[in-house]
Amino acid sequence: MTAVEAVGGLLEPAGEAAASPVRHVNTGVGKGGILKKRCRNTKAAKKPCDVKPRTVPESLQLQRLFMMCHQVFKGPGTVPSDSDVERLSRILDDMMPEDVGLSSNLQFFNPKGVVEGNPRVTNTTIYKGNNFSLCIFFLPSAAVIPLHNHPGMTVFSKLLLGSMHIKAYDWADVPSSAAIGDSNQDGCTLRLAKLKANKTFTPQCNTSVLYPTSGGNIHEFRAITPCAVLDVLGPPYSKDDGRDCSYYRDIPYGASSSGDVNVAEADEDGDLYGWLEEIEIPDESKMDVIQYLGPRVV
């Protein structure tokens, strides 16, 4: 079973949408734009008459989240106030898998489940507008969303199911001469970054929040067990509006050779730092996309 097959049945169908086969695209968001490749569904689709329409119960908590996002996110170039961040975080902290049509009993979240080939991330979008978007990322065990940034964005992440390791950086607030390292053998410049997070998260953890220039704006998700994370992005990525996604790899502080690291080097104050090198869009950034058919927002 592939990850897409496992995830494709996660979200409860609503009404006529149940008559359509799950379709997905391969997506990589980066400086090259959004890459899409249609995948043909080899299984015959059920005819509408073969499927009994089912109504998905409304999720009051999801609707509360949606309405609060409309109040909190004022548009590009703005950052939510501390009080708004607290209000939105409280709602997200109380979010349960069932609020978006998920359950820990689903096959995808079985830690013993085997995903064929390289583990690949799947995502689905609940809502996307000019000011914010709501989406869910499904990561099989060992799947990775590589280090990437969120230019001009405030992002709330709430882990709904499973466990994952999150590593996050912010650009170091030091003189520019100290923040730029030597170029590597490929001529790429290294930039100093401060490690903000390097730990395991579970659904019991509070919502994590990152800001345009703080809070760990450059982060990496690495699944320990199959997991689902709900992301609120305000505003969403937009290449046309200068909010394109860049990818990075980290290398040891005080070195200019290539190579990944698990822990950055500490300075005399105990803060951890590492060099970040911007890279081309990595293969791991490509995701399978499925249609969201869970509880709706209005």
From TrEMBL:
Alphabetized Pfam families for the sequence: PCO_ADO (PF07847)
CDD domains noted in UniProt: cupin_ADO (cd20289)
Entry keyword Metal-binding: yes
Cross-referenced InterPro entries: PCO/ADO, RmlC-like_jellyroll, RmlC_Cupin_sf
Uppermost EC category: oxidoreductase
Cofactor(s) required, per the database record: Fe(2+)
Organism annotation: Cuscuta epithymum
The keyword Oxidoreductase is assigned to this record: yes
Listed transmembrane segments: none
Swiss-Prot/TrEMBL catalytic activity: L-cysteine + O2 = 3-sulfino-L-alanine + H(+)
Matching PANTHER family: 2-AMINOETHANETHIOL DIOXYGENASE, CYSTEINE DIOXYGENASE
EC number, UniProt record: 1.13.11.20
Keywords: Iron, Metal-binding, Oxidoreductase
Name under which the protein is recorded: cysteine dioxygenase
Gene Ontology terms: biological process: detection of hypoxia
One example GO MF annotation: cysteine dioxygenase activity
Record-stated family: Belongs to the cysteine dioxygenase family.
